[in-house]
Amino acid sequence: MTDVQANPGYYQCHRGGVRLDDDTLSRLRPGQRGAVFAMRSWATAPDDGVAILGLPTGYGKSELIALAPFLFTSGRVLIIAPSVVVRGQLAARVRAQDHLRSKGVIPGSLPQPRVLEHVGRIESPSDWERFEEYDVVVSHTQSVSPTGKAVIDPPDPNLFDLVVFDEAHHLGAPSWVGVRTAFPAAVAVGFTATPYRRDRRSLPGRTIFQYPIDKAVDEGFFVPITYKRVAADATAEGRDRAVAEAAILELRHRDAAAGRKAARLLVRADTVQCAESLGALYRDLDPQIVLEVITHQTTTKQLAAATGRLQSGESSGVAFVGVLGEGFDLPSLKIAAYHNPHRSLPVTIQFAGRVARTEYSASASPETSEEHAVLIAAVDDHPEILVELHRDGQRWDRLIPELAKDLGEGSSRAWTVFSPDTADMADAFTIENFRAFMLADVYRLSLAPDYELLAAGLAELRMATPEEGADEAGSAGGTAPRDSAYSVKVLREGTCFAALLAREHQRQWLQATPSGQQEYEYIVLAIEPRQDGKAWWLCVRSTLPPDMTARALARLFGPSLQRPSRSELAQYRGDSWSDARFTGLGKRAIHPVVAGVLSYETGAGRSVDQALSLDDRALHEIGHAIGIIPAGAGAHDRTQIGIAMDKRRVWQTGYARLGDYAMWAANLCRELEGGVPVGQLGGQSLTALSARRRDPSPQSSRRSSTSIGTPSIKSTAWRPSHSRTWSWLRSPVKTAATST
User: Fold this and answer.
1) Parallel, antiparallel, or unpaired for β 581-589 and 561-562?
2) Is the distance from CB of 442 to CB of 537 less than 8 angstroms?
């Protein structure tokens, strides 16, 4: 195979004809000019890493990708596209060079480069050799990355002397890294709107240029997005319907104002099934609405046909999964329907920026132009949108002013929620950042709670555990407290509260512990009225020690605080237990003879309930149960639920923001009020087993047995878990404190 440097290529031959003087470059956008200067500088002394350039979504990275081979005087170029959609568009733009020719950067007399849109995988050396016929190959990592067995290594590592990565925030992925390592001598350049990985870690390479969003707004490339929040009920179906109705109303208004139909809707979904469901929902609400569903399963032929229908106005918009936000260019898509919060910051930024580009004349304003952008979202999704854009660290308040204005903090707001390197825990403890584990100790309140008084009580909460003989405050008459905690910050969403507490306690292995050694705990209180209106449910999640939690609740609620009966608790997820695969069970002896030998036995293992004998069912009641139940339509969509009768505790795996925890707690409370069919556990219902005798005395003895009935079942004593990490913060925070 011929070395790429042996025969001068297109870009080496025509580098002298490209105009890069200040006058010509001034015709490009300011951010594009800055990127050109950065690449020219990098070309003088590149290293073996990746030079990363950050530009806002839709700002014109394709033109820079087309120009980059001239700047690096490349022989042959490999361009990696993030998706099939973008691959075709990039190949066409790099071949045509339309924008650069219209600006005079590339003379009109220059021939076009030979560009191959590569489809399929490299399976033989001849597949690699075929690339020698072209100046540019535009491909995808799955087609050319030799990290997997499907693609063979290139026989000549010098086949390309420039590798360009579009949407370079994927560079942390092994397949992307594999492309870079396959051509170690090549210069590597990456373009992205988000120069960091999805997990917020740095990309492998060096950011040599980044053009901020507020500069793009100042120059008029982006216009502020109108942000519309619509009221919706708490269900996912209700939110989807409310957002869709508002988007359709906006579409009708714009079509009427323009006197023509156009593809204007941009609908983002998390899964293929969700995209298809949303397409059907829009069609049900308005039969004239046709959304093209574009996913990773869409073939090149299907994509071309869909793009044609979108450009002609035959289709109303796009429902897409992931790939469309990266590089897809259809400027008329100006109505962004935000149906679900994005877990990935790059996707959020791509989605918001995609609709913000100006498409109207200079004399028109965003308010009067039919083409101004609008972002429609459910009210409940506002915190998710806010925190994702806040975490970017750029001035997204310039692009979506309502995000700052709705918080009542105006333009003076410090746009980043907190800096993990410098902020303290109180800064990190926000509605957007806090996540509560989905566990609840269930109580009843006999008196109506005063929510304002409760918030004040949480804010003033202080507790201390003294040495024996000392008063609780650790006064001069006694010794200093062994353990103390005080409230630092309180969050509230409706009738759900979360308090951050700083805690100091004496280490048992030190006679005296230095002051100021703080740890952090939290307590969540979710209150829900009973349907009969005679009492209220209280769901508590606390990381404080049990004795501190008990004293905190006693101070906040007094004699109004009660525990529900075991039979009430047995209603939890009653409709799901029948489908559960049990992994842990505990049984409590209720017969006097058996109780004198083993009062409590535990077992763990697959289908542990099948080990229960008839005698077990007659002589014992359920103490706790842990089960795996279906959590979605997919075969692998499972979640763990659990119940501990004596502790009046229920849980479900996962963390939830405060508002979602409140909804989960509300659903739990509805189940506890009865009317839910209770499934069978080992041949007996949870309710039947729990109602056999009165609640056990707290002084009852317990010990674990070696088995429940079969030798294959591993015995374990149930223990409540106590996390020693701040897993309840969505984003970490570095402090000098010891984690708890």
Assistant:
1) unpaired
2) yes
Terminal alpha carbon distance of the chain: 60
Contact residues for 429 (Cβ-Cβ < 8 A; gap 6+): 488, 489, 491, 498, 500, 522, 729
pLDDT digits (tens, 9 = 90+) for 423-443: 467 778 888 788 899 999 999
Can you give 654-706 as a three-state secondary structure string? EEECHHHHHHHHHHHHHHHCCCCCCCEECCEEHHHHHCCCCCCCCCCCCCCCC
Looking at the chain, the whole-number percentage of residues with pLDDT higher than 90 is: 27
Closest CA to 176 of 164, 162, 187, 159: 164
Which residue type does 693 have? R
DSSP 17: G
Joined together, the tokens standing for residue 118 give 């590569």
Q: Rounded to an integer, what is the distance from CA 293 to the centroid of its chain?
A: 22
Closest CA to 275 of 322, 218, 228, 209: 322
pLDDT (tens digit per residue) in 309-330: 888 888 888 887 755 544 456 6
Is residue 612 within 8 A of residue 683, CB to CB? The reply is yes
DSSP characters over 68-131: HHHHTT-SSEEEEESSHHHHHHHHHHHHH-HHHHHTTSS-TTSPPP-EEE--S---SHHHHHGG
H or E stretch covering 346: helix 345-354
How far CA 587 is from CA of 103, 603, 704, 718, in Å, comes to 79, 9, 10, 11
DSSP for 486-536, written as a single string: EEEEEEEETTEEEEEEEEEE--TT-SSPPTT--EEEEEEEEEEE-TTSS-E
**3-state SS class at 396:** helix
Distance CA 161, CA 86 (A): 22
* Rounded-to-integer distance, Cα 149 and Cα 144, Å: 11
Nearest-angstrom CA–CA distance, 604 and 708: 9
Predicted TM-score (pTM) of the model is: 0.51
Distance CA 644, CA 718 (A): 10
Residue labelled with tokens 């980043």: 416
